[in-house]
Amino acid sequence: SISPGLVRLNDSSMLMLRAITRALDPKLGDRVTAQTQKLHRAIAGEGDAFVEAAALKKLAEETIPVMSGATFSNQTMTVVLSRLIEDGIQGTYSDYSAAEQATLAIGSVGAFLAKQGVLTAPQKFNASLKKLTLSLAKDEQYKPREFEALLRELRSQTGTIAVTTKAAAVATPAAPAGVKP
Fold this sequence. Notes:
The chain has 181 residues and is mainly alpha-helical. Helices cover 61% and strands 4% of the residues.
């Protein structure tokens, strides 16, 4: 959370970078997440924002070869979707713009997985996605706890699967509704 009167960093565009990187290379993804948090703290007055922004830019550049060499399989995209959902449940999307971007990302990845036949119950997924989208109808009335509850509802339809990425075995607690392993 940020103190009143301080500038808030809109890092909503970073959420896919974090989710994809954590799916492909969990250690690198954790570094990207940690550096993003450092930048937030620096903007709030705990450090040098320019130094932390430069460090994040350098780290983002390290993700390029990881992503360009990756195969975005159904399994990888399932992990990405799981990361997006879990991040939201953990409170990462406490501001409206992040929640809006996350919803768009969840919808895009879910649609991809549905087209691939990975979702066995796309109607349930879409119904939950619609509720998530409706919770964002008015930005000034955004309620982070309500959004998190809707993400938990989405996750509750998905169960738990174990997913192995190229980099490491990752237990993924959230997967799309009725995912076929």
